Structure formats: structure tokens, C-alpha cells
Amino acid sequence: MHAPSGSPVRACRHAATRALLAALVLASTAPARGQDAADATAFSLERLLDITVVGASKYEQKQKDVAAAVSVITHQEIKAFGWRTLADALASLPGVYTTYDRQYTYLGTRGFGLPGDFNTRLLLTIDGNRVNDGVFDQAYLGREFPLDIDLVERIEFIPGPGSAVYGQNAMFAVVNVVTRRGADVHGAEVSATYQAPQAFAKGRVSWGARLDNGIDALVSASGLDAGGEDRLVDFGAARVSGIAAGLDGERDRELFASLSRGHWSSILSYGDRVKDDPLGTYLSDPLTKGQHQQDTHLLTQLQYQNAFADDAVRLSGRAFLGQERYRAPFTFSGAPTLQTGSSNWTGADLSVLSTPRSGHKLLTGLEYQANTRQDQSYEDVTAPATDVTIPGSSWRAGVYAQDEWALRKTISATIGVRFDHKDGARSMSPRAGLIWNATPTTVWKALYGRAHRSPNVFERDFSYLNQVANPALDGETIDTLELVVDHRLENGLSLRASAYSWTMEHLVTLGTDAVSGLAQYQNGGNITARGLELSAAQAWGSGARVRGSVSYQHSRNASGGSLLNSPALLGKLNASGPLFETGLRLAYELLYDSERDALGNTH
After folding, report:
1. Residues 319, 326: contact at Cβ < 8 Å?
2. Which 8-state DSSP code applies to residue 562?
3. Average pLDDT over residues 142-153
4. Helix/strand/coil (H, E, C) string of 414-476?
């Protein structure tokens, strides 16, 4: 689930590259020439520019009209590069990097990826439905993500503050995963994967169709079993060392279903993942059999969308329900323990998009979420009298408005604000953007946004063993300025440059309680960063495509030092194309991260 208290997320020790070379199976049973034509259409620049984005403002927008440097990863790209997790796909984007601690995958964005961050400053949604849970506020990005990536139609990555629309968590980015529909599958799909030496085996069975009565249905079940890797683990003289043999296993079960007809649609997503722990999370006994972390995640929503007054008014409403169960049996000095986190949440979101006057798109909405259960517990089998149960519940509500205003034919402004109430605290999240279509092929965007995050109940309330609670813990805010320019050439080449600067206040970070000397989440000083992202994409009529980026990010803590786990340079290269007339695609990926500082003055 997370980086352990008192135990660092282990960052990369040196510059790393990764290359993937894969020829993938036919996406359909069409003849090779037909498949090549389909690939050319799917990967053409015109098709990519026509993709709409719904995750930025909760309604459809063309990429050039979004007040953000938005990126879209399509289903075709996911297939071509063989990405097996959401994090794998996101790592191909400018300014994004990942960290894996043999348990969970964490996403760094624009220079921020502190050890101990549970992906809480990133908002993750599936078809607009919030995935972040109610205890740890975590976005699940690796194999813990409760949806098979083969069911993803596209991934919308909207960097920068998104709290003006979404409220909590949307500090560095919003990631909206749009799922495939029954018509996209159009029949049955069966897939199987095996990978050595991890003894990794995965299978999926899906069926989908659009029926004659207008019902679109999709149902899919997936399963994964892996033995993991046997690696040497050395904790130094203070602890133990040895081969973590048979301690890195993983098991995952996923179920997804969607149903829609007319104005109504619904989805259900269920995931149950168990990851063995070879490293001694939370300073538990390393190299101990039976230790693992388990997440069981359930999401469902019912959505209604309709248009009135000759499409001048669009109504969107949804009711949602979520549930997360975390279970972690660990051993400390030979004594077995069990830590749990249980959250239930329900809520509703209602928004209206209207055109009250010419040149305006006005979005107004309200959202309510009741966290009916936010319970934590810790059990010591050898000393049950010391067991603790920390019950919790809360609610949050927000109202928001945004105006997309066409000032002139080539200039538009986006102005929005959201007011939130959570746990007795009130916050305001403004957003402003000025978009200038300088030429038919060049777009400039000047952007400002503020986002906030309240501390989660684990950070604020958990108290046992090596951690104490902090009821006075305050929330944190981030202010971001950004300048973006997009330029498209007639030969299929598109270029982007993005320069940004952000400042975070009241950072919630793990410190030391002055009274007990134990770990405690506290508000730290301000941190700042500035960066530059340069990217390019080239598409050819044959269906071949190359995209790459170089990112520079300079982040500093309150004392002026470098942030931990923050590489200064990132490089990405992705290339794919049809393999002659076989119906297959050949893909290559290269990722480069410069050194990152880790705890203990290591790299």
C-alpha cells in the first residue's frame, strides 16, 4: 500500500535505462492489409489531435482547448508497447517517473516524489469515479490498480492543479482512465501471458457487445499469479542479509463490468491483490515468510447524462460507492501482528454545462462524499491487551464553477473556482488560463492554479509502536504557474514546450515528535520547484509513430537542499510501427532517469 514509516522508498541508485522490444498479436482478425490501414488511422496525427478529453473539466474538450498541457495515451499505444500497468504507461510521459519498493508503485511528477508519499497528491479516476481510498488517500498505479489495463480505452493525464474542479488530491495531476465499452470489444477476447524467471502467469477473459436494443455491455475477469524474483537483500550490520527466496510472490484477481443504454451508464470494478513482502516493511522482520500486504478494492457508479434546450444545457449526475480493505500481517522480533485499514464511501456529483450567452461555456456543480468508515487497527497476537482500534468517519462537500470564455476568435480564457468543506476546514481552489491560437498550428497557454490536500486519517490519527498521532496536523496547498506552447507542422510533426514553477506550503511529511521521540506526520516548510519539458511526436501515413521528451526539474526544500527522490533530468523515447504486412506492430521504448538522492545520502 505504501512506503513504510521509518523505512525509505528505495530510489534508483544510478542512471537507468529500459528498453522494450515487442511484436504484438493482431488486434483483429482482419487481413494484414486491412490491419495496416487500421494502424495507420489509429496512430495518425490527425486522429490523435481529434481525441477529446473529459478529465480536465468533466466535459468533452479538444486538447488544444484544455487549460493544461494534457497528454493522452491510447489503447493502441498500450497494446503496441506491451505496458502491463498504469504506471508503465504514465512513465512514458514528460516529467513523470516511478519508484517501486517491491510492494507498490509510486509516481513522481515534476520533481516531487518524496519517500513516504502514498500517491496522495495525485487524483486517479476511472470514468470520472474517484479511486483514491478513504484511509490512506492513495492512488493505485501498479498491479494494485483494480482494473486490467487491457480494458483501458485511453489514459488522460492532466498535469498541474485540478482542485478547481475536483477538490481533494488533485495537486500535481489528474489521471482519468477511460474504459472500453462493449462495442469496442465486439465479441470475446482471451489473452494469456507467461514471463520468466518471475514465474509470472496472467490470463483474461472478456466479452462485450452493443445489442440491437441499444444496450452496451462488457464483462471481464482477470487473474495473475507470480513467484517473483529471488534477490540478495543486505540490511547491513544492524540487521540481516540473505537471499529473499520465494518471498516476492504476487496474486491478483480482477472483475470489471459496464452497462449503458441511452442516457444511463454504470460500471463496477473489483480488485483483490496480495503482494508478499521480502524487505521488512514498517521495520518488520525481513526475510520472513508469510508477510504480505493485501488490498481489496471495490468501485461502482451510476451515471446519467442528457442535453436540453437544443443542446444549450447539458446535465450530468452520478452516484458512486467505494470500498477498500487493507490487511497486512507482519512479524516484529518474532511476534506476529496484523495491521488493517477499512474504508467505505458513498456520494454524488451533479454538474450543469450551459451556454448562457454567446462565447461562454459555464460549468457549475456540486459534490458530496460521505466517508462512512475510515477505521484502522493494529493487533499483536502475543499481547492482545495492547491492540488498538482507531475508528473514523468524515464527510466533504464542494461547489465549483468554471467559465470557458471566448474573448476573441483566437483568444479564450478559462476561469474557475471551487469551495470545499472537509473535517471542519474550508479551502478555496482558483484556476485561470489564457489560451491564444496564434496561428492555425500554434497554441500558447498561460496557466495558474491552486490546489489543496487535507491530511488523511493515517497521517493524522494513527498511533502505535513507532508512530504517534497528530490531531493538529494541517492541510497543504500548492500554487503553480505554467507556460505552454504547442506547434504542429504539416509533415505530421508536433512540438511542445512547457515551463512551470510551483510552491507548496505546509508540506505534510514524516518527522519526529519532540515529546515521545517517535515518528509523526507534521507540517514542514515550503518547497519549490521549476522545470522545463520539451517533447515532440512524429506520425507517418504508414502508421509509424515516434515520440520523445526531455525534462529538466529543479526542486528545493525549505533549507535550500535538493528534494529526495527527485531526478534532475528525464529522457523518454517511444517508437512503434507496423511490421511489414504481418498485422503485427514493432515497438521500442527507452527511459532515462538521472541520479536521485535517497535517504542516507545515497543515490
Report:
1. no
2. B
3. 96
4. EEEEEEEEECCEEEEEEEEEEEEEEECCEEEEEEEEEEEECCCHHHHHCCECCECCCCCCCCE
Answer for the pair 12, 22: CB distance below 8 angstroms, yes or no: no
Please provide the DSSP assignment of 205-230 as one string: EEEEEE-TTS-EEEEEEEEEEE----
On the question of pLDDT at 23 being above 90, the answer is no
Q: Cell digits for 538?
A: 512524429
The cell numbers describing 567, all together, are 531526478
Query: ω into residue 159 within 30 of 0, thus cis?
Result: no
Please state, in angstroms and as integers, the Cα–Cα distance from residue 13 to each residue in 46, 113, 230, 253, following that order.
Answer: 41, 15, 19, 33
- Residue reference for cell 504557474: 481
Residue identified by cell 489528474 is 174
DSSP H or E run through 88:
helix 86-90
Cell of residue 150, nine digits: 487491457
* pLDDT tens digit sequence for 476-487: 999 999 999 999
Placement of cell 470564455 in the chain: 405
Q: Residue holding cell 489495463?
A: 149
- In whole angstroms, give the CA distance from residue 224 to residue 243: 24
Place of cell 442528457: 306
Query: Can you tell me the distance from the alpha carbon of 594 to that of 314, in angstroms, rounded to the nearest whole number?
Result: 47
Q: Which residue has the cell 524467471?
A: 197
The DSSP code for 148 is: -
Query: What are 402-461's pLDDT values in tens digits?
Result: 999 999 999 999 999 999 998 788 999 999 999 999 999 999 999 999 999 999 999 999
User: Closest by alpha carbon to 211, among 179, 190, 188, 187?
Assistant: 187
Nearest residue to 562 via CA among 119, 98, 111? 111
What pLDDT, on the 0 to 100 scale, is given for residue 198?
87
| Residue 95 DSSP one-character state | T
Indicate if the pLDDT at residue 100 is higher than 80: yes
Least confident of 105-109, 233-237, 295-299, 412-416: 233-237
